Amino acid sequence: MHSPLTEIGDLSNYDSASAVSADAGLSPSMYQSGTSIKRNPKLSKLGKASLRAAFYFPAITAMKFNPVIQSFAYRLKTKHKPSKVIIVAVMRKLLHIAYGVIKNNTPFDPFFAKT
Question: What is the pTM of this model?
Answer without folding.
Answer: 0.81
